[in-house]
TrEMBL record:
It is an enzyme of class 4 (lyase). Keywords: Lyase. Pfam families: Aminotran_4. SUPFAM superfamilies: D-aminoacid aminotransferase-like PLP-dependent enzymes. It comes from the Bacteria. Coiled coil: none annotated. This is Aminodeoxychorismate lyase. Its EC number is 4.1.3.38. GO terms for molecular function: 4-amino-4-deoxychorismate lyase activity. Belongs to the class-IV pyridoxal-phosphate-dependent aminotransferase family. It comes from Microbacterium aurugineum.
Amino acid sequence: MTGRFAFMIDPVDIEEQRSDYADTFTQVDAAAPALSVGELSTQRGDGVFESIGVVDGHAQEVVPHLERLAHSARLCDLPAPNLAQWHQAIDEAAAQLGSGESVIKLILSRGVEHGPTPTAWVTAAPAPDFSAVRENGVRVVTLDRGYDLGAAERAPWLLLGAKTLSYAVNMAALREAHRRGADDAIFLSSDGFVLEAPTASLILRFGDRFVTPAPNGGILHGTTQLSMYEHLAAQGFETAYDRIPAADLPRADAAWLVSSVRLAAAITAIDGVSLPVDPSLTADLNRYLLSPRD
Ligand code: PLP
């Protein structure tokens, strides 16, 4: 099957910690109505999610995605997801996807207003064709994210570091980038440090050292960045997490936005100033990211 479909997870099973969940998903047509109008995910964006890349029926990096789902749920005071149950739902969805690239999304919401349980579902659909952007790269602009690097620790209710469903700000940043003639954006903290893109992590290269903003600064810890670091370290490169001043951006020898479905997109210009691009390393990174990864 290559069309869109979804599994609704049986509400009575979401909070149980059993290990066998054979009959707890109901497959539904993703084009048909499935959510109640009282859903807090749709009314308030009150929930968390994950997007998993699938290549030829192989769901990539499932465990790191499930670990981040659990981390996001903890930050949002949502029930701990039963990882065995989600793993099984992912396996069932991946088994039905055909060849080529697809995306599986996991959604855990606070549920229906005044309702007793959260709502959870898994969707599966073909991925957009990102081959051109992997080949040609992206022009980015820097945008102020409006908080400083200490905000995540000082104000945990801002949920920085959780992958919540509230992506309206991220989408607005992408529209602003397009208005400024760019393809994507890099968020900066109000105290002048580099954060992440609206839907991707940022990796910079300085000589043989690769560096990414430390995830304790209120950003997501990207599963693609983690996986790419393993690949780079295996080739003898140095990899690091750091505070990166915005002033360092134009000094980079190369830079990429990396994420689970688009994979590695080389940054070709920042705020209208060209950045060096390494097409053969970018192609190698995307070959690696398209290979089966666990
Ligand atoms: N940062 C943000 C804000 C994202 O939305 C994403 C992915 O959606 C990422 C980083 C990259 O995460 P991953 O590599 O796990 O897809």
